Give the backbone structure.
Amino acid sequence: MLERINDLFNKPIGYLIIIGTILMFYCTFLNFKKERKPRGYIEVSEIYQKSSVYFFVPVIFFINMVFTILYLYDIKDTDGNSLDGHIIVISLVLFYECLTFIYCNNNKILFNENEIRVYDFFKKVKVYYWEDIVSVKNKKNEVLIIKTTKGNFKIQYSWENVEKFSKILQEKNLVQEDLSKFGKGKAMVSIWKGIKYK
């Protein structure tokens, strides 16, 4: 067994497993961490997608661990090949799911009557004011593209509280078209919520 463990870490897959394990625990930490948002702000975020994506993170990690244990016991696949390739593929899928989860967790918008705070993947924040908005484009009833004097940002129809954001846009006369049908009839799939129609 020790020889197989040494063999594992003489190959890239050993480090892929370590990185995958770290990412899985980091995503678990983020998933259960309670973040305090500034008082008086409404959050627009991918809360449904976040819970759906996180569901697959521990599942894929568990599958990866099963293949790793089989590898350590020198068990081959049906063609008699080592399980190196299987572990690499599953690790890459795990990385993708973890990065998608981190994106859904970090990418959000906080707003109040005065300003809009837009957070990106790295949790960097850009502050916009409602008067900075130049135009709002409703793209195929799925995405709002907000153009401002300081840059652009997007909001998906499936984000939580998007209707409250669009309501302020209309109250402040910052959009010419009717946004009452924004996202209507679009199915939003969530593991926890089932299928919800906006």
About this structure: The longest strand covers residues 133-139. The radius of gyration is 22 Å. DSSP finds five helices and nine strands in the chain.
